[in-house]
Amino acid sequence: MKDDVSSPWHEGELTIQRSVGVAEQMDARGRIRLRKFLLEQHREFFPLLPFVVLGAVDPDGEVWATLRAGPPGFLTSPDPKILSFRLKRDVDDPADIGTNDGDSVGVLGIDLSTRRRNRLNGIIRRSDAESFSLEVIQSFGNCPRYIQRRNPILIRDIDARGKFPPQILSSLINGRAREIITQADTFFVASYIDAKDGSRQVDVSHRGGKPGFVRLDEDGTFTIPDFNGNLFFNTLGNFLINPKAGLLFVDFLTGDELQLTGEAKVLLGSPEITAFQGAERIWQFRARQVIYRPDGLPLRWSLEGGGASPNSLMTGDWHEAKKRLRASELPNSWRVFRVAHIKDETALVRSLELEPTDGGGLLRHLAGQHIPIRIQLAGSEVPLVRTYTLSVPPSENKYRISVKRDGIVSRYLHQLNVDDTIEVRAPAGGFTIDATQDRPAVLLAAGIGITPMLAMVRHLVDENARTQHVRQAWLFQSARRKDELAFSGEIAGTIGVSKGYAKYISVLSDPDAVAGKDADHVGRIDLALLKRVLPFDDYDFYLCGPSSFMQETYDGLRRLKIADERIHAEAFGPSSLRRSTDKPTSRSIEVPATDPTRVIFGESGKEARWHPGTGTLLELAEDRGLSPSYGCRSGNCGTCSVKILKGTVAYLMEPSFPVPVGEALICCSIPGQTPGEDPSLHLAV
Fold first, then answer.
1. Could you tell me whether strands 663-665 and 641-646 are parallel, antiparallel, or unpaired per DSSP bridges?
2. Under a CB-based contact definition with an 8 Å cutoff, are residues 207 and 248 in contact?
3. Burial 466-491 (b: 16+ CB within 10 A, else e)
4. CA–CA gap between residue 351 and residue 349 (Å, rounded)
5. Neighbours of 326 (CB within 10 A)
6. For residue 69, what are the β-bridge partners?
7. Residue 572 to residue 631: CA distance in whole angstroms
8. pLDDT (tens digit, 9 = 90+) per residue, 114-143?
């Protein structure tokens, strides 16, 4: 029933599939998954159900969603192309008028207790008011994600009417309707399109999230996050062609129903998408008609213990999103955070969980990124700035740094107590991992280099569960002694829930360690070990650890003809990773100045003269008594980035951090050659 006979999808569905880059793969999937008949397992599934969800269109073209109950067996499939319904007409149901002979409807069969669901659409054949049959036009299965597990209970005769008559509501702002909507963790949505050949395709689907995932504004606008799903985009694709929508909310404890019809709007780009954990799109709805049916259903449902969908628990809520939006207004500002929790991972590594004290939210980080920390030591005139990797995945919605006691700042952090405060800036850094890629990832961590790798492997496992997309991972962790293997319990838990998609290999350099007892291997993470452990495959490599480990591993991988762009690395300290690139860098290379250059530090009103061979711009600023922020001093973290007001800079080594246009990383740059009479360099320092 698609306008384009060459595609299994209509133009609305294709538009969204193209926007996320999956149109080609979904073309092949659609030809397999969209069927014109019911599979045998679906024919066996529908007779087990005590209710069914329908989407129907009334004579005025308004679409409604409804839930109809019946004793198990009220749905049967005498033929793969037929689904029969023993359902009496219901004059209280606004969707009923759209279930006449010849009408098109959408059907959702869903078993909340098992999270199974299947959808179909077709044309009604009816000869009486007691039953009808549906000629199947399209049938397909759906995944169990975002479904809260509930058990149905029949509390009265199926055909008995409720105690109270339906009510037509003029407002959703207050009262019972708002309560049902804003507390819901589930609702159903109907939509439809009319094809050029005159046929109609109606769809009805399930939506789930945490309680309150539907926001109802004072003007009556619903705002709803759209999470990762099967990539069909039936509902949102329909909205792009025909914005008419029908929503059904059910209070599963009381049997109350709220049926709404109106118009929807799909937002493919909005700051709220980024702010709402797990959202990939957002759509809005405004109602034209609202019908409240108290005690409308003969069923009640009990929520099973642990029945909340694990996929829903990985998503956010509007309160959290609002705080994130507030925090995004100050992305480069120092904010005060308190220490909320402390945990010793080893004798030398301590984890600190940090919470903002200003009431704002946390800007979402990417797995592998770090945060700049600023502290003021007693007796010091200037604050000290360092960067620390966030050792938790984005799904945790918290900031946790794990600090090895080594250096003046890290020793200070180890002395902090709960409720002590430090200053924090927004997450940054380009050492991240993309869970949507297919190539397996090999994560190589030495010492405290485990912190970004832990965040990465947990992120991959989380995303495997959330999106059903698998990116395999191999995590290698090395330390000197067994008691220095940080996060052993956390790593074991992550590997345990990965369904075999993530594997862990521990390595100890202690010659007294016993392989197979103290660790998987004794020695070092080197090419010999990788060749011995890894199956033959095509990998991306991620490296983090001491400079010598990083350089040796990188050079070894390059000798094996692993492309430079497939080796991702994070190095901290004065020595950066020296790369042998396969192709020129995409960033334009400036020529270093060969003559003494006047440098103006615009914000402080100071200036200095740089001479070739005397050091970086950061060192020049420090020589003039300035204290610019910095972290790694090697072009990896971006903490030292400042605006270039005039002139150009050149880099002593190619920074791994992506430098924004018009800015400079002063920790690893020097003045560049500037044509003209005034070759001076002006920086916002």
1. antiparallel
2. no
3. bbeebbbbbbbbbbeeeebbbbeeeb
4. 7
5. 15
6. 51
7. 8
8. 999 999 999 999 999 999 999 999 999 998
